[in-house]
Every structure is written in structure tokens, then in C-alpha cells.
Amino acid sequence: MDTDKGDRGDRGVKGARGRVVLGAVAGAAVVVVLGVAALQAQREDEPPMAVKGADATPAARASAPASATPSPSPSPTSTIPVWEGPTPPPVDGNLAKGSAQAKVTIVEFGDFKCPNCRRFAQRIEPELKARYLDTGVVRMFWRDYPIRGRDSTRAALAARAASRQGKFWEFHDALYAGKQPGLTDAYLRSVAARIGLDLARYDADRRASSVRKAVDGDLGFALDLGMPGTPAFLINGKLLFGAQPVAAFERAIEKARRDG
User: Fold this and answer.
1) What pLDDT, in 10s, does the model give residues 93-110?
2) Among positive and negative, which fits the CA dihedral 116, 121, 127, 133?
3) Domains observed in the chain
């Protein structure tokens, strides 16, 4: 059942993997590596390894059309620092927005089928953008956490394909705008056309193994952390769960600014 504190029904996602105790992760200073150290490097890395033993929903793996080939994976430009815990998947700079010099980073773990993720995107994020992203205080990053079934995974792959053309956030905003008729291949392709993507390239990219590995990597990372549902946020490494009121985000951001 959905609530304003997050989709607690999404807690049903369970895998054969062991999980890190969430409280320990949220309270440990080293968790900052999840967002800050990797994200401020302004990197676009190669997609991560596929999740081992995760409950990832199978995605379409048909061969790319003969007329198009997948876009190259982002190439690494720096190294993620070592920390104790699950290995953070590489960061794709196309899934970031805000100033690279921002002192505060927000990492969102989201699902395109999640009603509260949509609520955050429609009602909360615009206010945070005006006050913090547009003023250079916050940089925001997306990580996929597709835990609501096949549609969630399909949408995550489509959004990653859009990111290969530099239009992840346009695709993200279009998916969360209004009510979704269903995250079918046809609907997602219509969104791609609406925002001006090269459709042949989009079709190839969404079927590319590197795109699937990137989505699986984020999903596996969130599961290893024991993230309780969607949306979940790390604000300079500290957990804030759910589409909470703007004031809750403001308090967390201001605290992160004070703590440096």
C-alpha cells in the first residue's frame, strides 16, 4: 500500500543475496562514497557487472536491428575509492544534473512505475531544483531500482537508452508527467519519439547488453544495501526515505551543507 513515506509494498523484493543492515549504512560516514566521492568525479563509466542472484526482471534481449548498432558505453575517466560494503556501480554522468562543484549530492533510487517517485518528480523535485540545483548547491544523481516488475525494468532500459543520446532527464520527466497508460514497448517508444530521439539508435541501445548490465548493477547495489523501497535518497550519504515534504529535504540538505 502506497503512503507518503514511500512505497513500503516494494519491500517484498527479496533475493538470495545477503543485505547490509540499513541503519548501519545510513549512519556510517564511509557511506558517503556511495554518492559523493564517485559522483563529484564528473565521470561516465562503463556499465557495471550484472547482478548475481538478484530478483531482476528479465528484459527483452532481442538482437539490435541490422540498420543500427548500440551506442558505445561511457568510458571511465577516474577510479571509485575503495570502501567497506557493497561495491558501488560506476556512475553515468548522463544521469546527473546540477553543478559539478556542488557541496551536496542527492542520489535517488527510483522506479518509473512507482507512484511516490512520480509524486516526488512532479511536486518536490521542481522546488528543490529552483532552490538548490539551479543555485549550484546540490547535484542530483539517479540510480535505477526497478522493483515493480517487468514494466519497471522495461522503462529503466528505455531511459538508459535515452541517456545514450543525452536525454535521460527529458525521458525521465516525460514518464512521470501525468498518468501512464502502461509502460509498454510501444508507449516507451512513443515517448522517445516525442522527445526527439533517434529511434533506430534508441531501439538498438535499449536492447544492448551494456544497458541491461547498468540497470542490473544499480538494482543489485540497492538490494545489497537493503534499501527499503522507492523512492529512497542518499543526501551526502545519509538516508532519507520516501517522497517526504519539501521541508524534510530542505532540513537534510542544510544539515549536509553545515556538516561539509
Assistant:
1) 999 999 999 999 999 999
2) positive
3) 2-50+91-259 (3.40.30.10)
